[in-house]
UniProtKB/TrEMBL annotation:
The keyword Ubl conjugation does not apply. The keyword Transmembrane does not apply. Pfam families: HTH_20. SUPFAM superfamilies: Winged helix' DNA-binding domain. GO terms for molecular function: DNA binding; DNA-binding transcription factor activity. Keywords: DNA-binding, Transcription, Transcription regulation. Signal peptide: none annotated. It comes from Mycolicibacterium chlorophenolicum. This is Putative HTH-type transcriptional regulator. Residues 9-105 form the HTH arsR-type domain.
């Protein structure tokens, strides 16, 4: 097995995957995705805006990034623009990320508890 970075036909696949993670790499975008996932239906921008507590221009920019990387889809319906997750597995990805976060934080709590169980230190001289 080669440990070199893939070139040729495989390289664009890795770039596409990296772009997915770039699209996810902002707390506001994660919040938007969680809102869309929790709603489980196409959601108007006005509703996302009310729940996300983000400035309208910033929300627009974040939605554009998510749309450009095919994480969400958007369409105009009358005067409203509605968004939804582009693929149901994105909701699953959010659940996995939250589980990872909980496990990581749980591990840190264990370390903090272990730190508390260390014998006391003497006063500095």
């Amino acid at each position: 097995m080669s440990d070199r970075f893939p070139t040729g036909e495989q390289r664009p696949l890795y770039e596409t995957k990296a772009n997915l993670f770039k699209a996810l790499a902002h707390p506001a975008r994660i919040r938007v995705l969680e809102i869309l996932s929790a709603n489980g239906r196409p959601t108007p921008v006005s509703e996302i805006l009310a729940q996300a507590d983000i400035e309208p221009t910033l929300l627009s920019q974040h939605l554009a990034v998510l749309k450009r990387h095919h994480v969400v889809t958007g369409q105009r319906v009358g005067n409203a623009v509605i968004y939804e997750l582009a693929h149901p597995k994105i909701a699953e990805l959010l659940v996995i990320a939250r589980t990872f976060l909980a496990d990581t934080l749980g591990g840190q709590r264990h370390q903090l508890d272990a730190l508390d169980s260390l014998p006391p230190l003497g006063e500095p001289r």
